[in-house]
Amino acid sequence: MLRFLRRRPSQAIERLKHEQGHQALRYLTTGVGVFYAVMMWMHLFFLPHPANTIMFAVSLTASGAFFGMRMCSGWIGATAERTRSFEAIAMAILAGVTIAHAVVHPDAAIATTLSLVVIAAGLVVHSTMTLIGIMLLCMAGVSYALMGPTTGSDLIAHYSFHFFFSALLAALAFAIRMTQIRHRAANELRRMRAIQRLQRQQKLLKATSIRAERAALQADGANRAKSQFLANMSHELRTPLNAILGFSELMEHRIFGDLGDKRYAEYAQHIHSSGGFLLKLVNDILDLSKIEANKFEVFPEAVRLHEALGETVAMIAPQADQRMVEFRVFDVPAEATIMADPRAVQQILLNLMSNAVKFTEPGGNVHVRVARDADRWSITVTDTGIGIPEEDLPNVLAPFGQVANAMTRQQDGTGLGLPLAKSLTEIMSGEFRLESSVGEGTRVSVAFPLHSEHEDRLDTSAA
Known about the structure:
By secondary structure, the chain is α+β, with helices and mostly antiparallel strands. It folds into two domains: about 10-145 and about 155-200; about 300-460, Heat Shock Protein 90 (2-Layer Sandwich). The protein has helices at about 1-5, 10-45, 50-70, 75, 80-105, 110-125, 130-145, 155-250, 260-290, 305-320, 340-360, 395, 405-410, 415-425, and strands at about 300-305, 325-330, 335-340, 365-375, 375-385, 430-435, 440-450. The strands form two sheets. It has a five-stranded mixed β-sheet with strand order 2-4-5-7-6. Strands 1-3 form a two-stranded antiparallel sheet. The longest helix is centred in the middle third of the chain and has 100 residues, at about 155-250. Its EC number is 2.7.13.3.
């Protein structure tokens, strides 16, 4: 018990003591009130005069006190301090009535009743000091009851041992109850801490989610601003580039006569080719910016793959011959017709084939095949070029993404070909696939719907 006395009880322990004490006090006041209501009549009829009258009055007072506490149990249980005080008062009344009986009508058997009062205190009270006080009070009552001249030494020893054993039992019951309360309080405290941790984690998660949403909105705004800037700049660059290309072509072909020195014609050719490269770059940037800004428009119609491939091959073949790369298009089925935007399809094919030729070493080959796959026509461009490491595949599909190696550094490029081809394919409800192995080559496939009923799947407004 002293161990419990030295401990500073937590709020959870005090609350549990209060709850249990209030409930125990309600039961105790009801039971003992009824008990003394019965005992006052038994004292009146069975005890000799004047002890019967005195014990009748004492029992009546005790019964009234217990019934009064029961009626005021709501008020008593409002605070822990009040509950603990009335626990002590109830046990003191119980012990006092028993001692009064021993004084009015001496009887060694009263020691047994006081032993039961001590056990009841161990089962009811929640204060160590209250339990010790009840034990001392009952011990005084037992001592007084056993002091009578008619009480033999055997009875004294018997009732003394009985009281001592009852006190030990009361102390054990009190210790067990306090241990259970502390365990319950510890479990409740752990549960409350777990709930608090969960609540903190939920708040943290909510705050993180809000920050992520804000960051996403900021990133989206920055991306739109970037796309708008690139689109505006592309428009501004197009006009002077068209003029440069036009005038350099006039000079290259000597439309208005000789330039005076043959080197001027060579310079004009370099200006025209460089301007053409820059114009293609500007067009690619403009198209990619429109796609990212959801403003790219496609106008689907029936596109015959045989004709589309023929036009693209005519533009790529000279480049392949110059690089000594075998370029071959396998037989294209005459019925191969897709629903797509003709200009976008030609740009996709041109990007894929020019990339394949550009990154294939002399003596390699580039093959183009057309095949039907369920409700789609697929176009596959396969080369025996340098290939792309698997970890770099996501990078080459990102705008301006390139794989840094000796071969790529020797080739001109901006890293827009594959990303633009992929974006154009997907905006027309197509499917883009890229497979590559270092030293073995690359395989790129694009697939498009082949029936006109798929036209409604195209995003003609890109909104």
